[in-house]
Amino acid sequence: MNDKDLLRYSRHILLNEFGVEAQRLLAGSRALVIGAGGLGSAALLYLASAGVAHISIADGDVVDLTNLQRQIIHREQTIGLNKAASAAQGIGAINSSIIVEVIAERLAGNALAVQVAKADVVLDCSDNFSTRHAINQACVRYCKPLVSGAAIRFDGQITSFDLRTESSPCYHCLFPDQFDAEQERCAVMGVFAPLVGIIGAMQAAEAIRMLTGIGESLTGRLLMLDARTMTWQSVKFKRDAECAACSPAYAASNREHEYATT
User: Fold this and answer.
1) In the CATH scheme, what is the code of domain 3-260?
2) Could you count the other beta carbons within 10 Å of the beta carbon of residue 215?
């Protein structure tokens, strides 16, 4: 770290639990943020300002006027632009010293696997169950820590899955894949603007703590916020021994399938 870096990140370095070493860890880290909407906006701004060296942003949508009510990384001038590209502009205005990779598509299949494999931490800021489960499967496969957030109406939630450890549950352990689950989206249900900022900022905080090893992650704990009363609830959960995504039996059968198709 040079003198300019020491000055820029001095408020982190002043923290006894953080210091120069943690900041150096961020300077060598790579984060993948999937979704540059409401959650992603806040998460990306804090990851960038904190000095995460390489940030990959994946989003296939374009900015429209209705997004500006809550997606604070975008501007009126970027309406019509791909969200990942717009977010990269916002990051560049805050911290031009980091590397930003724009992935102007909805990640899926092998493309998702490739990006997850390269990341040190993955932030799920998407807005649909199918994408969340696909992200989880890729993180399980490559043992990558995953920070998951969600917000709709006045209700928000956040948790983490430290899939670097064998005892960690995964997203599927907490929310089994149900094809008949009702899909709730901001476009039809509405969302309280500051809520996505609160959850997104917490996702960034969780990712930074997981990258640096500071404190205790949310693995095994789901935090839920009711923004109407600003009250939090915490629910503990464990790994499902019969999980269809992360159990040893599933992993073995998945490997057999891979060998059979190669």
Assistant:
1) 3.40.50.720
2) 12
